[in-house]
Specification:
Length: 336
């Protein structure tokens, strides 16, 4: 990857919002939602809320998202980790369609038109077609999932996503027995994506990712449309993105316009660009170094020179209990 070693982001250690504050906000939000007063969210006046969203432009959510939020299922037992501050999660991004710098997506992604948005479903599947996001999500309840997101560049974040398990959608679309992999494709619209125009031509657009079918239907695999109780900001992959928490972040493809059920392992963007550096599986693994740096440790954002917040990387990003069976018998050093 075109790596810039993280410089600690834009925030200080003291700005980490404790999880309790967030949970407290959710309780308040739920109360408001229950009384059909969601539009009064800006009146939430706790200092924590003010600082969480200060200076962060958040797009207006489509009506269907607000409706779904009324019935969202909030995560019952988070794992006790501090959430990444909203400002860092939305201003320290990788979304190369908008440029190579961490601040480019926040600077430029507002120009991406996300409504209306359709997703092409094709390949080995019984219900192919062009679906609106709204239709894809219609039968499902939004769920909150607080996951660690570990970038291959060795910085992790902890993000509360809102989405649906991909498994439920796959079941409804009914892939045939010939489908062995799922291929995902991002929007490629150079007129709205300056990174595609700026001669950043190392990447062969559109951005493509893929999962083996058993990975795609694993209960942890999420199709997200929101984060931090709000609609997904454009720079984080609006209106819908994948979240695969036990894999390096580049597998979590943003702004998806096509989902294909295929027989062969798809050629993915980073794998095609640098096959010696990025594999198809991209499972988080402290034992398997990137050819240019070690993956043994990670530097959680926010950090600073005096408090770098360095931790040991966990196998499968800490989700080994839930996912290691998927790779039984595989040589993780070879099939990286
Ligand atoms: N999806 C697309 N379409 N384009 C990208 O450049 N970057 C990936 C992934 N999804 C990327 C993408 C990488 S490298 C990471 S680490 C995560 O998005 C970052 O997600 P975040 O910016 O929401 O933290």
């Amino acid at each position: 990857m075109l790596i810039k070693v993280p410089d600690g982001g834009e925030c200080r250690e003291s700005q980490v919002t404790p999880e309790e504050t967030y949970l407290n906000r959710r309780r308040v939000l739920k109360g408001l939602v229950a009384s059909a007063a969601f539009s009064t969210v800006p009146s939430l006046s706790s200092l924590a809320e003010a600082s969480r969203y200060a200076g962060v432009a958040v797009a207006k959510a489509p009506a269907w998202f607000d409706d779904k939020l009324l019935h969202a299922q909030w995560q019952a037992s988070p794992d006790g980790e501090s959430l990444t501050p909203f400002r860092d999660a939305t201003h320290y991004n990788n979304f190369y369609e908008f440029g190579p710098d961490k601040g480019d997506p926040a600077r430029h992604a507002a120009g991406m038109v996300t409504e209306p948005w359709t997703v092409m479903i094709d390949g080995e599947v019984e219900r192919p077609g062009q679906y609106s996001v709204e239709d894809l999500f219609a039968p499902s309840r939004l769920q909150e999932r607080i996951y660690r997101l570990r970038c291959v560049e060795a910085w992790p974040m902890v993000i509360p996503w809102l989405g649906i398990p991909l498994a439920g959608l796959i079941e409804r679309l009914a892939p045939t027995s010939a489908a062995k992999y799922v291929r995902f494709e991002t929007l490629a619209r150079p007129e709205q994506m300056p990174g595609m125009r700026a001669g950043f031509s190392l990447i062969d657009w559109p951005y493509v990712e893929g999962l083996r079918m058993d990975e795609a239907v694993h209960p942890l695999t999420l199709l997200a449309v929101g984060m931090y109780g709000r609609v997904l900001p454009n720079q984080n992959g609006a209106p819908l993105r994948l979240v695969v928490p036990w894999k390096y972040g580049f597998k979590s493809i943003k702004s998806i316009v096509r989902i294909s059920f295929v027989r062969e392992q798809p050629k993915t963007t980073w794998q095609a660009m640098a096959p010696d550096e990025y594999g198809f599986y991209a499972n988080v693994n402290p034992q398997v170094s990137h050819p240019r740096w070690s993956q043994a440790r990670e530097r959680r954002l926010p950090g600073s020179l005096f408090s770098p917040n360095i931790r040991q990387t966990q196998l499968f990003n800490g989700y080994a209990d839930q996912v290691s069976h998927l790779y039984a018998g595989m040589d993780l050093a070879r099939d990286y």
